[in-house]
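Subject: Interface between my chains keeps coming out wrong

I've been trying for a while to get a sensible model of this assembly. When I model each chain on its own everything looks fine, but I need the whole thing in one frame so I can look at the contacts. Pasting all components below, labels as-is. Any help appreciated, I'm running out of ideas.
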Amino acid sequence: MDFLKTLTFLRGGVHPEDAWKKKTRYHPIERFVPKEVTIPLSQHIGEPARAIVERKTKVVRGDVIAEAGPGGVPVHASVSGTVKRVALAPHPLLTEATAIVIETDFEATPPVWEEAPDWNNFSNEILLESIRAAGIVGLGGAAFPTHRKLKCPPGITIDTLLINGAECEPYLTADHRLILEHPVEILNGAALVAKILGAKKIILGIEDNKIDAAKVLKAALEKHPSTVPVEIRLCKTRYPQGSERQLVEALTGKVVPARKLPMHVGVMVQNVATVLACLDAIAFHKPLIDRVLTVTGSGIQNPKNLSVPIGTLVQDIADYCGGLHYKTVKAIAGGPMMGRALGRLDVPVIKGTSGLIFLREEEVSKEGFGPCISCGRCLEVCPLGLEPNQISIYTEAGRPLETETFGTKDCFECGCCAFVCPAQRPLVQFIQMAKNSFRRVA
Amino acid sequence: MNKNPSLILSPGPHLQSGITTGQIMWWVNISLVPIFIWAIYLYGWRVLLLTMSGVVGAALGEWLVCRLRKQKQTLQDGSAVLTGLLLVGTLSPGMPIWMPSAGGFFGIVFAKMLFGGLGFNVFNPALIGRAFLMATFPLAMTTTWLKPFDAITQATPLNIWKMDKIVSVDPLHLFLGLRSGSIGEVSVVLILLGASLLVWKKIIKLTIPLSVLAGLFAISLFSKVPLFHLLSGGLFFGAFYMATDTVTAPLMPTAQIIFGFCIGVLTGVIRLWGGYPEGICYAILILNAVTPALNHWFKPQRTSTEGSPS
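Reply #2:
Try treating it as a single job with all components included. I did that and got this:
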């Protein structure tokens, strides 16, 4: 099967080691259900959802257990069982937040989600409401409520929908496995989202380290032709290919102006897992209650791709995967480039958790950073043409407010600069410090 | 199995690729080894003593300043050793053994540590060390060149050309390094060998060295013997090992081309019309001073906040 030329974004980027993804790319998605889940009421930006269950309430998998806050989405029970408590619990991003703890009843009859016969003919209002009611947020990591992203402001039309199957973060293979195992569903979900947007074209972008996934999609497309024209394109394996801005550049050649969104150039990007969740929500009325994620790194005994109920604790997942190596010193929620380091393992997987990565001490630099030697590597890899070297030098010298001219505000913190810095300077952290000082002044 | 690991909290990215500052410095040091072995072969064991003298002087300077300022010692990053080696590379093999120590000490203390240490120096410390020796001990610096395989002094090909406008060595011998000259500069082929290791390791790029060579070639057309000028003196050593020092060279490719070309031209101007037979040292130092301005004038082009250029 042939593909057109491999595409890539215009400048910068880094090539991560292929070996990192090899740990899990051939591991089919496994199902794991823990004895207990801790479902936080804050799963995305904005106000937390409001709990509508209390201690001892019996819930069935898929029940709404918390109603959406303003602009947010509801939260659903991810397992059938009994609510143990509604209380503050550790949170992967917020340190602590209110969560609903449910004890799993393994004996309960699982709910059946039947396919609605006429889902292809629903009106846009019904489609958007189904997506909202199912609690869907962007599953690429940012976790912005999907029904809000799909509602473009007046005056903006989307002609092309890009489906993000790049999965450029090192180590992660969950999206790769999703494509291999659910190609038809992803294509159907993409067609539904394209219908909501009125997009005339769908382009699926996949990095060329996943040619098998692209081939599976192509075969599925030939069997089930889509109502909207679909192109499947290979992108170069280059981080941050899966960042929205870079994917738009690669797949359409359009440059999204700094600090603007892809919709300003008539394009929208949705992640493969998100469109799959949209299809589940619309055709089967199944809410977003499971998360497919990659559990990997040198610090875990048996790396796996897992499907777990949202709210599964990292500790339970680590135990299920054979436990941690004794030299493990870092646990990361999300990808290793933009993910968050976890301070404890009793935090739950939330909707936006795309991976859990455990690193041993030899992979984690504990030495301090050195002075900038002006090697220029950060300038070469920055996809926006910013000057991380200067931002870090000024911020280190206590003059963060003078860094705006070097592009501090445009930075989306992909981390390429710090990835290549020979002096191991924490460039992203310096940029964050500079951004914070602008906020304090404003 | 580890139930309760103490976890490290730090911001992303959590991975790092490639080479560290220390590795860069040590790879450059390693790439210099063949050049120094060749010099020992040509001029005898005193070259080894001179090398050790230069390295010890430079290291002592760095150690002492760190000690006096109660800072963490930085010798392990390899940059002081590199300064010592590069300095000795620019010196004549017949000079007194103690002299490289003085140059290395001066270069490190006054050109590097007093500016704030690694990364903050404006001028190449090795070349400042050489300029210091040139000003202080001109006789030892200019009259102690040795004839290969013979412990007798012999003027360098550039010296002879400066005095009598005679080309005394054929290009092949210049290329292989069978001539009198500074310890590090004589064998063009070994310099290229070391440089290719650095290019392969992605430690240097060819932008600056090729611009230096182009600049010198252009200006030495006036001398009627451009090939002789290209292969003689410290041009290759300076172009590949001194002008490529990242701290003192500009960042953007266009600026690097201007930087390199001006070094080449200035070297030729000094050789052809100046008072010294060789000019690469001063040419690089002068352009080092222009680097901050070049960095100010040439910036990466940022993705605009307004429109799309496509």
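Reply #3:
Confirming on my end. The two ends of chain B are 54 Å apart (CA to CA).
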